[in-house]
Amino acid sequence: MSGESSQVAQEQQQLEAADEHSDEGYDPGSDRSSLTSLASQIRHGVIENEYGLPRDEDEKDRIDMAHEKYFLLLEQKRYLAPIGPDLEQILDLGTGTGIWAMDIADEIPSAQVTGIDIAPIQPTWVPPNCRFEIDDIEAPWTFRTDFFDYIFARDLVFAVRDFPRLIKQCYEHLKPGGWVEFECIYGVLGCDDGSLPEHGSFRQFDKLLREAAVAFGTPLEDPDKFKAWFEDAGLEMVVEKRYKIPNNSWPKDKRMKMVGVFERENFLQGLEGMSLRVFQKGLGWTPEETSVLLAKVLSELKNTRYHAYYPL
Question: pTM for the full model?
Answer without folding.
Answer: 0.85
